[in-house]
Amino acid sequence: MSISDDLQKFYVLECSGCKQKNDKKIESNLIAKICTFQIDLIDGSGSTTAFISGDPAEKLLSMKAEDIFHTTCVKNQLLCVDQTQQMLSNRLFYIQLRKSSWTSSPVTQSSLTILCYTENCLYQAVARGALKRPNR
After folding, report:
1. Cα separation of 50 and 126, whole Å?
2. Does pTM surpass 0.70?
3. I want to staple 112 with a disulfide (CB 3.0 to 4.6 A). Which of 50, 66, 92, 131 is the partner?
């Protein structure tokens, strides 16, 4: 995995009642801040881009959506994702994806969303030499 673009927004505002997304800088108790961003998924067959949001996205960045919003919108600073990019490099993950499709006449479009992910720890241990493969 690799973060697609470190200049992306990393959050979206959502109405707590109707769940409608909003890009405007509105500060209200009715507005929920949701961590969301694009991430590149790479394996031996190629690569694709997917969206990740909510708890899995916050876990990946090690930041809550409120903190991301405060850094990028209130302080007007870029979010530093270098440490996350470094952590993701050379690691393998099991990823559960959902494909969504919609038609915008005359074209059908689709996107991938990461529902959850876990690191392949057994592979990492073998790669680091911490776990030996059995002799046969």
Report:
1. 28
2. yes
3. 50
Which letter does DSSP use for residue 135 in this model? Answer: P
Domain boundaries, the chain: 2-128
Place of tokens 């529902």: 115
- Per the document, the length of the chain is 136
User: 55 φ, ψ to 5°?
Assistant: -60, -45
**Angle at CA 78, nearest 5°, toward 73 and 79?**
95
The parts of the chain modelled with pLDDT lower than 70 are 16-30, 122-136
> What is the pLDDT at residue 24?
57
The residues that bridge with 50 in the sheet, in sequence order, are 39
Cα–Cα distance, 117 to 113 (Å, whole number) = 11
